[in-house]
Write a structure and sequence with these properties.
Layout: H1 2-38, H2 56-63, H3 65-96, H4 104-111, H5 113-116, H6 119-133, H7 139-165, H8 168-176, H9 181-210, H10 215-218, H11 226-236, H12 241-263, H13 268-271
Helix pairs in contact: 1-12, 2-12, 3-4, 3-7, 3-9, 3-11, 7-9, 8-9
Amino acid sequence: MKAWYGGILLHGWRLLVVGLVCFWIVFLLAPIVVAVAVSFTATEFPVFPPQGLSLRWYANALASSWFRESLLTSALVALASTVLAILLGTAGAYVLSRRGVPGRKFLEFVLMGPLIIPSVAIGFALFHLVLQFGLQKFSFLNLVIAHAVVTLPFTLRPVLASFIGANRMIEEAALSLGATPWEAFLHVILPGILPGVVAGAIIAFTFSFNDVTVAVFLVGPTTRTLPVELMSQIEYTPDPTPAAISSIIMAITLVFFFVVERTVGLDVFARSE
């Protein structure tokens, strides 16, 4: 009797877990399906299911100057902030991997702080700082620094994991054979932590490119990122052009991860742990 009851209970839990997984899959994928479907509608306004099929909204998106300019701005900001975050994250991880460093726990807490503090608070604080120092004209630089700050933990964590998992004896052997600390880092340490660096760079670039919470506080009249511009267009543009742009961004993201899978492999995230 107990075995039968236990089997029924286990089967019920399995059905509940499968049901929850299916629910969350539908919950996450439904907006994507709706956005892609709406982008192909032939009507003058977004409607689901689409009435007719047309590529006019993709042509309209590609012909829009605000889309091209904001896309280029987002790409440049994401690239620059990723490079800065990788440099800072690698340096921080190198220091934190040395257990004898004074104040190691406090330094780690400071560097990982952006994961704890809400993005809205960070964006507002940086906005206030920009106003205090009169840096409103340097909106591009402000965006790069802000995104480097919020993406620093995403580069620090995988690189730090790679440092901790690396064999310190190889570095010490290189130094004992006459290599300078810089040469030992470039030729011995860097190849070992490269998977963590690549994983951190991918996450940082993706986060920076899609960020709207921090960027909305720091964009300027001539420097507007794509997520902020897209949010504005969704509010004031009644046609399906924003849906077409969202579909284009999703396609670019899929191509990006396909290139990553073909070059370094998606298991780079697993290797960094």
